[in-house]
Amino acid sequence: MGLSLWLMPNPTQLQLIQKVLPKQPKTRPVSAASYPEITPHITLASSTKATQDVILRAIPSTLYPIPVEFQKLEVGDHYFRSVFISVKKTTELVALHEHIMVALDKDGASPSAPVFPHMSISYIADEDGVAERKKAADELRATTVVEGPETGLDGAESVVLCCGDSEEERVYLASFEGTEVWIVRCEDQCNTGKCYIK
């Protein structure tokens, strides 16, 4: 499927987010390709034409931590965007994305980044349908995701992730700090438990 550039949460936040991602449900049958283990990230760009050298050249020589603010829990119509959190287009995030897209385009890599910016939290196979994707989103709202005015944040469109196994360990994330850009080679099968290799 090609190479991608991912903006990654700092390691502590990455672990917290990974703990609350949906797992295969035990109460209903779903496809083996649904609910694989995924690594939360923002896709800055993907290309089926780019070589690793081209991808490396597209990354700015100086990188600073990028604030990533959650906006809304959404259900999509594509496997890789089955259930995702849309992200606010902050100046820093847009500038990094545009720099990378322009550099890749100049090298003839035909980059893409559909529905930029977003953070996928579930991949659900097409055969499980929109109903399963909506069910996954509803279950997240019941256990993990706080939306809208209830977040205590400004604006109607805001999301907080409730991370932690108990009330004492609970951490509320309305954002994360993007501290690394990963180059990943995307595999085309997700039913092996992991979708990507670094």
TrEMBL record:
<dbReference type="GO" id="GO:0004113">
    <property type="term" value="F:2',3'-cyclic-nucleotide 3'-phosphodiesterase activity"/>
</dbReference>
<dbReference type="InterPro" id="IPR009097">
    <property type="entry name" value="Cyclic_Pdiesterase"/>
</dbReference>
<dbReference type="GO" id="GO:0009187">
    <property type="term" value="P:cyclic nucleotide metabolic process"/>
</dbReference>
<dbReference type="InterPro" id="IPR012386">
    <property type="entry name" value="Cyclic-nucl_3Pdiesterase"/>
</dbReference>
<protein>
    <recommendedName>
        <fullName>2',3'-cyclic-nucleotide 3'-phosphodiesterase</fullName>
    </recommendedName>
</protein>
<dbReference type="Pfam" id="PF13563">
    <property type="entry name" value="2_5_RNA_ligase2"/>
</dbReference>
